[in-house]
Design brief:
The complex is a heterodimer of chains A (80) and B (1165).
Chain A lengths: L2 E4 L3 E4 L4 E5 L11 H9 L7 E7 L7 E7 L5 E3 L2
Chain B lengths: L19 E5 L2 E5 L5 H7 L6 E2 L6 E2 L12 E4 L2 E5 L10 E3 L14 H4 L8 H5 L7 H10 L18 E3 L3 E4 L3 H12 L4 E4 L14 H15 L4 E4 L2 E7 L3 E8 L2 E8 L2 E4 L4 E2 L12 E3 H9 L8 E6 L2 H12 L3 E7 L6 E5 L6 E4 L4 E3 L2 E5 L2 E2 L3 H5 L5 E3 L4 E3 L8 E3 L9 H29 L37 E3 L4 E2 H9 L5 H8 L12 H12 L3 H4 L13 H5 L12 H6 L3 E5 L2 E6 L3 H10 L2 E4 L4 E6 L3 H8 L12 E7 L5 E11 L2 E6 L4 H15 L6 E4 L4 E7 L3 H8 L15 E6 L2 E8 L7 E7 L3 H11 L6 E2 L2 H11 L33 H10 L3 E8 L11 E4 L2 E12 L4 E9 L8 E5 L5 E6 L51 E5 L4 E6 L5 H6 L6 E3 L5 E6 L2 E6 L6 H8 L8 E4 L4 E7 ...
Parallel strand pairs in B: 1-7, 8-14, 9-10, 9-15, 10-11, 15-27, 17-23, 18-19, 18-23, 32-42, 49-59
Antiparallel strand pairs in B: 1-2, 3-4, 5-6, 5-7, 12-13, 13-14, 16-24, 20-21, 21-22, 25-26, 28-29, 30-31, 32-38, 33-36, 33-37, 34-35, 35-36, 38-41, 39-40, 40-41, 43-46, 43-48, 44-45, 44-47, 45-46, 47-48, 49-55, 50-53, 50-54, 51-52, 52-53, 55-58, 56-57, 57-58
Classes of the chains: A mainly beta (80), B alpha+beta (1165).
């Protein structure tokens, strides 16, 4: 089980967290086209290498936070 | 049978002073403590232990270790015991497996004769067709399966797991492993040393005086080093990301899984001796040099009378001396280094003669081979390294791709003298400690649970570790004849040649086709030989052929050990005891246990329609919302409008996700100017809370709203029926229930049955006049009982979930997830009236704008079968000819209408009142049904739930003193019978708990005197806990009556957004203390509770036995037991009993007791 660096609690096992998604920005709901909105909802980069992700520390501080993860090695680091 | 026991050997591990007895295939055998089952049998002259997998050839000792493929036996009820490893214990019944009718006469040995038909892939080729015969084949094949008996009467053992946090974990307790462990411990690391065998020492154990003297020194050093925890008879199962290491600890067949998070892993498994492939190499009497040396030196057993030794290395030479000392006549030494070779072993059932390459035939009952080594690279492979074949050394070695957190020592790293190997291991251990301590220091520096600066690690530079050389070794894998390669699976070198010819020429394909390396030995003995024979067959090299992948688990582990104690949290309502007394049939809904019904759901539903009923709705989610921006938040989360909700009013709302799909619904009431209480569905409570937090933390951080979940702070009871006003009126003291004072969709707070702080909603899921009462949870049972007692003359009856489902369906109220699914957007749920697209923004709005434009998607409708006696099962399809146009989402026989009623999802064009559709029943019948005008089948106008009655309300009855109840009950079974009792659990649920929210790092934090991660006692003795970022919990004795006011006054800081919520009833709280308290917790909690990570005063939240639990370390300052560790734990109230049970289970092995109430002052001093 990998450890995630919670910016509040320190490193904890990943089972304490919930993956929220890639760090996509919510489009302006007033102007977004269906294509833009659905890309936001459903399309993910799923890149190999370092990615920014949103996580929620469900069983800990209950804060949402961003971190960076190397998707091949599962190394993690605080989001810059 | 003559004894083969030798006189005392220098390094023997048996206790000759004592004798134990057990049975072997019904015969009595004696052993000495320290004997393995097989060493005792070998001492008694036994040579054959099993029959082989496919050909049922007799098998004897090969390795005399855990991995010995021919000595897997049945012990009592336990099948597949590694009997060359398992210690003999008094009274066990040991028998051979896979033999019928007996080991000596095995009729399945006929397979040897027909062996040429059992070609590789035999099963694949033979039993494929005709497919209909497979059940027959299966039965026949099962009789030939290679396994022991399992017993239906086997005791139900519960394995517990535990978490460990070593800085350095050393896999392997040979000289290198021990040396590395000592070096790491001396450098200040906490070390876990895992040894597969029953003693430390590896090959030193079967060495001479010098080796044994060295071993004694090493063992003494380990014993003197408190920083090393040694696990004997244990094995590392696998290494996973983040140096998460699974270890199995065994004790006489009982296994426990240790989940270790190690700073660094030192892999020091030594080398495994490799069998030699030649004709007859599996005859009993042919064994490895290490097997002979173990038998002689550890167990004082003479392995044979007359021996031939095939040697290619120093260990082979050493075995000759051992054999001679043991009185074995060494008839011939065949030195492979001089090109000498063995070509065939002769004998039936056991070795009689050995045929050499020069044609000579030598009578012998023992052939010892020493032809080389396999490096067990499993753990380094799992860390990402790929092994490399070195022809000069005739073995694979680790490559150069190890991560920082993994190091290699001992034979896996290279060759050398004992001093060289230990010198290398010493450097490895020091470096492992350096890396682990630096890792630990980095971790400590970011933990909020510590005070003061993080400890400075000794700034040592990485010390270079000189690589060990690799000795030359002849490449000896297969001789001049074909023999067995995989002893577990009966795969011969000829089979591999055949498979290669058939095209299975890649090692991964070959493995799966022939099953070579897939048996109980899992490749440890046979992988390299398999690779070499395949290379030979395909005319390539070993390096080109490559090796198979070593995956976890490294050794077999029981499913029971992996499962451990099942941790599936269960949530209980404060009224659960009453439901059980009333004979409720339990329904598990999510984690909740709920009453499905109390015997007759239809009668329960009628009671609600005709008089009054009460239902426990505690699982309904409740969120306390405070702050000036709550209305904005509600506008954003719900599809409808909230800006104009007046104080004292309640409104129904629906939430959609960003894809417009209905996600949750419920009512929200405004209790005060900036104070709201939101209810959610029972199953959605956690998700809605997270959803709200997500918006507040990420999208709208500027909004001032504090959310506090109160789901189980209140016991919730819905009182429904035409006489509910009368009933509630008998118990409520300060709320006017008159229609004009407290009408439909209003909320009031008041005193109910003597309990202050109750919240009353006037809402009606059942369609009747009803009051939803939210009572401080500790008084829930009191109010429930008062309602039943004082409503008896009204005909009150408790009703369960089933009656509620009938009632709400009659009323046409949909249930999210039942009448909607993951594609149901708001308009499809019939919520056109609620969706306000003129709001600027709300979750899911864009999709709903587009849905409204397109008019797409199905619609939720009321539906009645034309024949009212037919109740179409839920999920029945609605069809036009063969086309599916909808489905029935809910259906019941309505007791009120005495006909069937349904809700259905129907394609929009058909969703017109009066339309007749066809419902396809599961039995194939097609029945007509009609779309109704409304969702509601009963009282669509809503007269009943707005009902007025002329019955007088009140007067208030005397209900007696309200009894406060704890969420924790003493368990029904006895615990803590074990003496001495080394941990005590005390119920602290009665403590006053004041929850404070304010900006992190602001003036409130300063006023409270503590930050996130720490707890401190205030001047009145209350414990102030920094429970989260910007979150505090103050714990006070109930006798400290001013605590809540004191806290409120203290945090009344101008210019900071602060909220204070009483959580006294919302949490189950306990203290666990005692010398083994931390050990109990280590079985259910993954947090390192050592003094530097979790010092006294540390506060954190984590998962304990899968329940989100707050933990505060509060050591007990007691004069009689100085320094006793204690932890205060609290979780949401409904999970408390589950958590208590889990802790008591975990503590059973140490001796644990439960105090339902502390009598010496609850808050530890």
């Amino acid at each position: 089980m990998i450890e995630l660096p919670c910016p509040w609690c320190g490193p904890r096992g990943v089972s304490e967290f919930r993956y929220v998604g890639e760090g996509a920005t919510r489009p302006d709901p007033a102007t977004a086209t269906p294509q833009e909105w659905r890309a936001y909802l459903y399309l993910h980069e799923n890149a190999r290498g370092w990615v920014r992700e949103n996580w929620y520390h469900t069983a800990g501080c209950r804060r949402f936070f961003k971190l960076e993860r190397e998707t091949e090695s599962n190394e993690t680091r605080a989001a810059t | 049978m003559t004894s083969h026991r030798l006189t005392r050997q220098q390094g023997e591990v048996i206790d000759r002073a004592r004798t134990i007895a057990f049975t072997w295939n019904g015969r009595n055998v004696t052993a000495h403590p320290g004997d393995t089952i097989v060493s005792a049998l070998a001492a008694a002259g036994e040579r054959v232990f099993s029959r082989s997998f496919k050909y049922h050839r007799p098998r004897g000792l090969l390795t005399a270790s855990y991995h010995d493929p021919g000595t897997i036996l049945q012990v009592d009820d336990e099948p597949n015991v590694r009997a060359a490893h398992r210690l003999a214990t008094p009274g066990i019944a040991v028998s051979s497996q896979n033999t019928w009718p007996s080991l000596k006469l095995d009729v399945k040995a006929v397979n040897q004769v027909v062996g040429r038909f059992l070609a590789p892939g035999f099963y694949y080729k033979t039993f494929i067709q005709p497919e209909r015969l497979w059940p027959v084949y299966e039965k026949v094949l099962a009789r030939f399966a290679h396994a022991g008996r399992i017993s239906g009467n086997a005791p139900h053992l519960q394995s517990h797991k535990r978490f460990a946090h070593p800085d350095v974990l050393v896999a392997g307790g040979g000289p290198a492993g021990i040396t590395a462990a000592l070096a790491a411990a001396r450098a200040g690391a906490r070390v876990m040393l895992v040894e597969e065998e029953h003693q430390l020492g590896g090959h030193l154990r079967w060495g001479g005086s010098a080796e044994l003297a060295r071993l004694a020194e090493l063992r003494a050093a380990v014993a003197a080093e408190p920083g090393i925890e040694v696990l004997f008879d244990s094995a590392v199962l696998g290494r996973y990301d983040g140096n998460w290491i699974a270890v199995v600890e065994r004790e006489h067949g009982h296994e426990r899984l240790v989940k270790a998070r190690a700073g660094t892993l030192v892999v020091a498994p030594g080398l495994i001796e490799r069998p030699y492939v030649f004709a007859g190499n599996d005859l009993p009497g042919v064994m490895l040099s290490t097997a002979a040396r173990r038998l002689i030196n550890l167990y004082a057993v003479r392995p044979g009378d007359r021996a031939v030794v095939l040697t290619a290395n120093a260990d082979g030479d050493a075995v000759v001396a051992d054999l001679r000392r043991a009185g074995v006549d060494v008839a011939r030494i065949v030195d492979a280094r001089r090109g000498e070779d063995v070509v065939r072993a002769h004998g039936r059932g056991r070795l009689r003669a050995v045929e050499l390459a020069d044609g000579r035939r030598i009578e012998a009952d023992l052939l010892v081979t020493a032809t080389g080594w396999t490096a067990p690279t499993a753990l380094v492979n799992q860390a990402g390294d790929r092994p490399v074949y070195v022809p000069r050394a005739a073995r694979f070695v680790p490559g150069r791709d190890l991560p920082e957190s993994v190091l290699v020592a001992g034979g896996l790293a290279g060759d050398g003298s004992l001093d060289e190997l230990c010198g290398h291991a010493d450097a490895v251990g020091g470096e492992a400690a350096r890396r682990a301590l630096a890792h630990r220091a980095r971790k400590l520096s970011v933990l909020p649970t510590r005070t003061g600066p993080a400890p400075e690690p000794a700034q040592r530079d990485a010390s270079p570790i000189a690589a060990l050389p690799l000795d030359e070794h002849p490449e000896l894998f297969r001789g001049r004849t074909h023999g067995i390669v995989d002893f577990s699976e009966d795969v011969s070198s000829a089979d591999i040649f055949t498979a290669a010819k058939e095209g299975y020429d890649s090692v991964e394909l070959l493995k799966r086709y022939t099953t070579a390396t897939m048996g109980p030995a899992q490749g440890k003995l046979e992988t390299v030989n398999t690779v070499e024979v395949l290379a030979e067959a395909t005319g390539s090299t070993i390096a080109e052929t490559g090796t198979t992948t070593w995956r976890p688990v490294h050794v077999p582990v029981t499913l029971g050990a992996l499962a451990g104690r099942i941790s599936e949290p269960v949530r209980r309502s404060p009224m659960q005891a009453a439901h059980e007394r009333l004979g409720a049939r339990p329904l598990v809904a999510g984690q909740w246990i709920r009453p499905d019904h109390y015997g007759d759901p239809v009668a329960e539903a009628r009671a609600v329609r005709e008089s009054v009923g009460i239902i426990d709705v505690t699982p309904i989610g409740k969120l306390d919302l405070r702050g000036p921006d709550v209305a904005q938040l509600l506008n954003l989360l719900y599809v409808n409008k909230w800006s104009k909700l007046a104080v004292g009013r309640v409104r129904y709302g629906v939430m959609c996700a960003e894809d417009g799909v209905v996600f949750d619904d419920g009512v929200t009431g405004r209790l005060g100017e900036d104070h709201y209480l939101m209810s959610t569905t029972s199953s959605g409570a956690a998700a809605v809370w997270e959803w709200v937090e997500n918006w507040l933390q990420t999208e709208r951080p500027q909004w001032k709203v504090h959310v506090t979940p109160l789901t189980t702070a209140y016991a919730s009871i819905n009182v429904a029926g035409p006489r509910s006003r009368e009933l509630v009126g008998r118990l409520v003291e300060d709320v006017d229930l008159a229609e004009d004072a407290f009408g439909y969709m209003n909320v009031r707070t008041g005193r109910l049955a003597g309990v202050d702080g109750c919240v009353l909603w006037r809402i009606g899921f059942t369609g009747e006049l009803s009051y939803e009462l939210h009572v401080p949870a500790g008084y829930g049972l009191h109010v429930w009982e008062a309602l039943l007692e004082h409503g008896a003359d009204l005909g009150v009856r408790p009703f369960g979930v089933e009656a509620q489902r009938i009632l709400r369906l009659e009323k046409g109220h949909f249930i999210v997830g039942q009448d909607t699914d993951g594609l149901t957007r708001a308009f499809s749920a019939g919520l056109d009236w609620a969706v306000k697209l003129d709001k600027d923004d709300f979750a899911g709005r864009p999709e709903l704008v587009w849905q409204e434009k397109s008019g797409g998607g199905p619609r939720l409708v009321g539906l009645q079968p034309v024949d009212g006696s037919v109740v179409p099962p839920e999920a029945s399809q609605i069809v036009i000819d063969e086309r599916i146009v909808g489905r029935v989402t809910s259906s019941r026989m309505s007791p009120t209408l005495r006909r069937s009623v349904c809700l259905a999802q129907l394609d929009a064009p058909l969703a017109v009142p009066g339309t007749e559709v066809t419902v396809l029943l599961p039995d194939g019948r097609r029945v007509p049904a009609r779309v109704t005008e409304h969702h509601a089948h009963v009282d669509p106008e809503g007269n009943r739930l707005r009902g007025t009655s002329d019955e007088p309300v009140g007067p208030v009855r005397e209900t007696g003193t309200a009894t406060l109840r704890s969420p924790l009950e003493a368990p029904t079974r006895a615990v803590g019978s074990a003496a001495p009792c080394e941990a005590t659990v005390t119920d602290l649920s009665h403590l006053t708990k004041v929850h404070v929210r304010a900006p992190h790092g602001g003036a409130v934090g300063a006023a409270l005197g503590i930050a996130f991660g720490r707890a401190v006692r205030d001047e009145h003795g209350a414990l102030v806990v920094g429970s989260g970022p910007g979150e505090w919990l103050v714990l006070a004795e109930p006798t400290d009556v001013g605590a809540a006011e004191r806290v409120a006054a203290k945090v009344d800081v101008p210019d900071e957004f602060v909220s204070v919520v009483d959580l006294t009833h919302g949490r189950a709280m306990l203290r666990i203390a005692g010398p083994r308290a931390a050990d109990v917790l280590a079985k259910v909690c993954a947090i390192d509770l050592s003094d530097d990570v979790t010092p006294d005063g540390a506060a954190l939240r984590t998962s304990i036995a899968k329940v989100v639990t707050d933990l505060v370390r509060t050591d007990l300052a007691r004069t009689d037991l100085p320094g006793e560790r204690g932890f205060v734990l609290h979780c949401e109230r409904s999970s408390g009993q589950y958590l208590l049970d889990a802790l008591l289970d975990a503590g059973e092995e140490f001796g644990i007791q439960f105090d339902s109430r502390s009598d010496d002052g609850a808050l530890p001093e």
